[in-house]
Queue: 2 jobs
Job 1
Amino acid sequence: MSTHALPNWLVWQPRAFPNANFLAVKGTRPALVDSGFVAHAEHTRKSAESMAGDRIALVVNTHWHSDHVGGNRELQRFGAAIAASVPDAEAVRRRDPGCCAAAYLDQPVAPYSVDIALRDGDLLRLGDSDWQVVRTPGHTSGHLSLWQPEERILAVGDALSDYDVGWVWAALDGPQAAATALQSIERIAALKPRVLLPAHGPVPQDVSATLASAHRRVSRLVDDPSGAVWYGARRVFGFALMIYGGIPLAEIEDYLRARSWAQDAARELGTGADAFISELLSSMRASGAIAEVDGRVCATADHDPPDRRLLNVPWPDKWPPASTAQTQLPVTRSQNEGRHR
Ligand SMILES: [Zn+2]
């Protein structure tokens, strides 16, 4: 791990799923890039405060997936402003039911509001350094990266990691999503970063090799739309198994049948829901990505199982209005009662 390559005002720590890695910037405006998963929000805030040596003044979201925005509400309650890309900010402000793809992916997110909408090229003061907003859509339409030109450090969110690339989802972001992701990888490479800071996994040791590998992987998603659907479906399903501590074997098919993402995947693949579900389960069993433990289907990848009681937050269609999101926090959420946990 090459944290020696990072300036001493930057704090980076790896975190297992379902949390994005820690990235804090120390200085007069202590900042955090991405805020982890909702069930670990308090831990995220306290760790961020301790690492930054102060209250966090600003949280920047690379994109709105649940493992990147789950601590937003907690940090906002303690005074942080939230910054996000224009598309994400506008949808969050109008309480679009599709916010964070939370309900769609079955990934809870606590209600938050966005204070600063970020456009490509915007300069943002984090700590005592200026960072440039670089739009890098593909994994989501609103995805952004943060570029620190003096240090040549690029925080890339889920655009790529040391070992893979962000999944793309044509059913939400259109058939060009993979091609858009490829353009973003090319844009990232053109900056010639010295250090890449992905939101998952280690800091890549060899930046050029990592970028070349990411380019190959995203090119495959462009060339093989069905493969891209399978890749995304396996990641989304694996994430659900992590946050729910596995799902009972007896309920797994009903669970999958009820998921919008699984219905869309089956449609994109031109197959029936049952055939899709059967293939998803058998292929993930065969690869060892899932296993049965005490009658539950579980993800085998390293993860930090959340306290499932902390998943009781409303879906975005029930979020309180943006201006009052910090003060009106619902305590009962019937929306979640059908969940398997
Ligand atoms: Zn993501």
Job 2
Amino acid sequence: MRFSGLRVLKEGLTGNKGWGAHWRDAAPKPEYDAIIIGGGGHGLSTAYYLAKNHGLTNIAVLEKGYIGGGNVGRNTTIVRANYFLNGNSEFYSHSMKLWEGLEQDLNYNVMHSQRGLINLFHSDGQRDAFARRGNAMANQGDDAVLLDTEGVRKMLPYLAFDNTRFPIYGGLYHPRGGTARHDAVAWGYARGADMRGVDIIQNCEVTGIDIENGAVTGVQTTRGAIKSKKIGVTVAGRSGQVAAMAGMRLPIESHVLQAFVTEGLKPVIDHVISFGMGHFYISQSDKGGLVFGGDLDFYASYAARGNLPMKEHVMEAGMTLMPMIGKAKVLRSWGGIMDMTPDGSPIIDKSPVDGLYLNCGWCYGGFKAVPGSGSVFSHLMATDTYHPDATGFQLDRFRTGVGLIDEEGTGSQHNLH
Ligand SMILES: Cc1cc2nc3c(=O)[nH]c(=O)nc-3n(C[C@H](O)[C@H](O)[C@H](O)COP(=O)(O)OP(=O)(O)OC[C@H]3O[C@@H](n4cnc5c(N)ncnc54)[C@H](O)[C@@H]3O)c2cc1C
């Protein structure tokens, strides 16, 4: 089933009866060439690129719940390539390029909107730091424009520019940054993988990993045992638990992050904005809701919901930056479980167990990484070599301390990244 303007028109005129399911409801087979544990963004994109780029199609994606039920369908949908440090820089640049061709590649409308991201700064020191970041982005081939107060005012006139405590000195504008419809990204990859023969198996929780003589041989699941000599783990906030099934203790803590959406409003915010003096970021969804979020709740948890103090903190930051937001009614809030590493950067690596590969540690920035992550992780799983744009994400850096990618400069404390 291909989507096209003509098809949409025809279906619209004939009662929309010709659309089929986007992927098959596959039952597990006894054995696969590769298994991906976790049907979030990273698992689905890995399966898709394994099939598309490496010709591996006898693959199963095992998802304990439903596609889109994890963080891939819970995030604030910000897509950007504005990293400073080597390691992250080239990887997110790689991911951004894939985003830019994704809808054509998947033949699926993921509503990728490059509406521009503006990171505000509120002091001279912060301006210097953002100028430096902007130069690093430009050196990487990405786009960055340093705006002064008037430059920001032209684009975002509704902000509180003269707040006594946090006056707006300017912003780092990243025109190619923006948003995408999060669950459509999961659905688009699921459909694309399924079309290439990948079995997407929902309601199938992995409960054990079978290992013989130091190599994986398969998994135990709630739908029976399944054999495979190649297994990729892409379970985001559950990474520690699944790695423990293979006897590993990962340098990861799971923390809860909340997000919020207001009632639908007429178009008012046409960029992605992030406040530089409190953790607060906001955009407006295509349905009109203001989608915003802030910091982690700061305690480790597996509960996909947060607590009131962080809600209060986020609302305060929003009111400080744009007092008009006080008129909007919050419709919903929710949480997701973040796989936080000690340096705030991900792990894409082989594990000490032969045939078992790890993809985790996305902290709260893994949505924008979905295309890039699938592309480089499938490369690693298929060839056993690191993709040139993802050589820095090796597990060993946490043992040796060499090659840490501490973008925030906060040191080895998971919840501060
Ligand atoms: C509130 C919030 C806001 C965020 N905002 C942004 C943002 O604006 N921009 C950005 O880039 N990132 C953002 N993120 C981060 C981003 O959403 C995550 O880093 C990313 O989605 C994680 O990867 P994933 O999609 O594969 O995870 P998930 O969708 O969580 O996928 C993992 C899957 O593994 C499954 N699983 C777990 N254990 C098992 C098992 N034993 N067997 C089988 N399946 C299992 C889970 O059910 C889940 O579906 C945000 C996250 C949250 C929660």
